[in-house]
Amino acid sequence: MSAAEAGGVFRRARGRTLDAFSSEKEREWKGPFYFIQGADPQFGLMKAWSTGDCDSGGDEWKQEIRLTEQAVQAISKLSPKPKFFVLCGDLVHAMPGTPWRKEQTEDLQRVLRTVDPEIPLVLVSGNHDVGNVPTPETIAEFQRTWGDDYFSFWVGGVLFLVLNSQFFYDASMCPTLKQAQDQWLDQQLSIAGQRKCQHAIVFQHIPLFLQSIDEDDNYFNLTKLVRKEMADKFSRAGNEVSRWHQHHHGDCFVTENNAGENT
Question: Rounded to two decimals, what is the model's pTM?
Answer without folding.
Answer: 0.89
